[in-house]
Amino acid sequence: MSFGGFAFLIGAIINGVASNIIMQIVGRLLLGVGVGFANQSVPVFLSEMAPAKVRGALNIGFQMAITIGILIANLVNFGTVKISGGWGWRVSLALAAVPAVMMTVGSFLLPDTPNSIMERGYTLKAKNMLAKIRGTINVDREFQDLYEATEAAKRVEHPWRNILQPKYRPQLACCILIPFFQQLTGINVIMFYASVLFKTIGFGDDASLMSAVISGGVNVVATAVSIYCVDKFGRRILFLQGGMQMFISHILVGVMIALKFGLNGTVKLSKADADVILFLICLYVAAFAWSWGPLGWLVPSEICPLEIRSAAQAINVSVNMLFTFIIAQVFLTMLCHMKFGLFFFFAGFVVIMTIFVFLFVPETKNDPIEEMGTVWKNHWFWHKYSHDY
Predict the structure, then answer these.
(1) In whole angstroms, what is the distance from residue 9 CA to residue 7 CA?
(2) Cβ-proximal residues to 360 (8 Å cutoff; 6+ apart), any chain
(3) What is the pTM of this model?
(4) Based on the domain organization, do 129 and 262 belong to the same domain?
(5) What is the pLDDT of residue 171?
(6) pLDDT score of 196 more than 70
(7) CB neighbour burial string for 334-354, b if at least 16 within 10 angstroms, e if fewer
């Protein structure tokens, strides 16, 4: 977290003072390093620190911070675009240094997780830390689970090679497919290119930016809903309900744009039409924000045993970032060629990922992170890979 925050800080400064495209690229690369380190470390940190009964809610705090950041970024962009003189973009990019400082300084104030302390050989210190964060000295059972998991992890010399073993196939499949499907929901089309998308379908310049702010606000509120529901109703119900709602929203937006624009895109939207499309997109954003958004980070971070947890999370982050990059690169081309069909394209993937969750993703609500092997043993499909636990 410290290294990631520092890389993000340097990247923000370089972007803010950039005098040429090379500096912009270098700054962006450093921002990518910071995002990668944060996405690798924070979800695992939260899952290892949290008690099982509130692990989902605490872990989704990570996603809540992201959604608040997106909303603030949209508000900043809405304001800085009005700065005269053409230097508003520098303010927008340089302000990323504010959360970077918060992350860097904050990381020095955080304790290590009991899992991390134990893995480095400090048994008594790990037990004391566990007692401190649980607020009680009665942690013998949880500590014993942690001790046994650590001993098992110490026998694993090559976690990257180990994760390919058949007994870890359920975790590996989920750590690849969940982040892959998360990006194929189409959310980054909305969040990255909201202004472009809204302007393309008939909103004015200011209206498109304000629409992006509105969808960002919905994102924050819906993530708060997920924090409340995830440990009460479970992960699977949020995955499945969110998938159905996203599918309906994609289809309705695609149909409406098809009826109003056709293939030539020459018809102007009325205010009522624009409001309906904005409402449907907000409905979609809400569904993602209480399902695939936070759960795409939560579930991979909590399903893996200690001996492969770091490697599995690295795979999760890498797949997520890879497909974020791919979607960002091809979106505008897809929008130009597919037009309203783009929404049907993502709707098809939402159907596939919802079926995947229904069949292959187990419920992990209230299961201690070091006892997750039992979840796989009881699954109708994955149990045949989990006989070695």
Answers:
(1) 5
(2) 173, 174, 381, 382
(3) 0.80
(4) no
(5) 93
(6) no
(7) ebeeebbebbeebbebbeebb
Encoding tokens for residue 250?
A: 């994609």
Q: Are residues 203 and 293 in the same domain?
A: yes
Q: What is the mean pLDDT of the chain?
A: 87
- The answer to whether residues 80 and 88 touch, using CB atoms and an 8 Å cutoff, is yes
> What's the token pair of residue 130?
């566990």
The whole-number average pLDDT for the span 87-113 is 91
Q: Which amino acid does the sequence have at 84?
A: S
Q: What is the token pair recorded at 62?
A: 């990570």
- Structural domain of 116: 112-155
Q: What is the pLDDT of residues 147-167, one digit of tens each?
A: 888 887 777 667 788 888 888
CATH of the domain at 291: 1.20.1250.20
DSSP assignment string, 317-355 = HHHHHHHHHHHHHHHHHHHHHHTTHHHHHHHHHHHHHHH
Instruction: Give pLDDT tens digits for 312-371.
Output: 989 999 999 999 889 888 888 887 788 788 889 999 999 999 999 999 999 999 888 888
One-letter-per-residue 3-state SS of 110-153: CCCCHHHHHHCCCHHHHHHHHHHHHCCCCCHHHHHHHHHHHHHH
Does residue 225 share a domain with residue 200?
Answer: yes
Same domain for 147 and 190, yes or no, is no
Residues 142 and 210 in one domain: no
Q: For 50-64, write each residue's pLDDT tens digit.
A: 888 889 998 899 889
95-109, 197-211, 334-348 — most confident range: 95-109
In a shared domain, residues 102 and 129: no
284 and 136 in a common domain: no
Spatial neighbors of 7 by CB under 8 A, at least 6 apart, are 30, 31, 33, 34, 37
Sorted by sequence, the CB contacts under 8 Å of residue 329 that are 6+ apart come out as none
Domain count, the chain: 2
Rounded CA separation 289/244 (Å): 13
The rounded distance, in Å, linking the Cα atoms of 303 and 174 is 9
Q: Which of 295, 369, 325 is nearest to 36 (CA)?
A: 325
How many C-beta neighbours within 10 Å does residue 205 have? Answer: 11
Give backbone dihedrals phi and psi of 280, rounded to 5 degrees, phi first: -65, -40
